[in-house]
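User: Study the fold:
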Amino acid sequence: MPDTVLTDAVHAKVRYVNAEWKDRDEIPRIGSRETRRANTAVQDILVHNARPDLEAGHSSLDKSGFTLTHYRPTVQNFRDEDEVARLYYPDIERLVERVSGAHRAFVRSHLIRTETPIDFNDGYARFVHCDYNIKRLKEMSEEVLAQHGVEPRPNWKYVWFNTWQPFDNPAINNPLAFIDWQSLPYDDVIDYYYTGRNYDALVAAPVYSPTHRWCYFPNMTTDEILVFKQMDGRPNRSNYCPHTSFDIPDTPEDAPPRRSCEVRLLAVFEE
């Protein structure tokens, strides 16, 4: 872990997958509030303001697994799926290419989260997780390329990213927190199955360790966007960026609700 800038931080409580699963042959299954409660436990963490460390160069996509940049969307209604796909997707692909150095980027899907979720799956994330599992990197990448009518090339390396951007309001309530990869031993990440909405997908999540350094970007505005890793199999780089929403203590009761658009996409890098 490199030297970091001393920053303000907030105390929070988040749910981690129970550590007992690390030593078991079975794999937990989580896809509802009930299975989340059964397989996770609350831990106390300290969440650091990531802005000073990013500005000082102590964190980056390849070192820490996340970065922040500016982008003002042209989308007027984020609840209109067709408008998001038509206007937002191409911009996000170009943005990820720019900030990561990727040769090409291809959107897989997006997810809108608001204060009125339809079900467990589009509510604010309430336990620490990764959205994918690096064991599925090649399989998932080739599926997305096929959806875009693109033939894989032998010299392509695959990396998956998420973008996360508030809309309507700054992200004061329920912001996103994430673990700096530089503080996360690879052995802390275990497999689990996501079973929501009739899926049975192999994904990943870390078990708790007090060594994990948690970060967030306070009061993200609607023209700021977080870019973070989902899986990257290249050596000597961040592989995952586990994340969750969290409650900031003493947030005013009249603070506006968090509404966010999350895009999941594949980036290809040429060797």
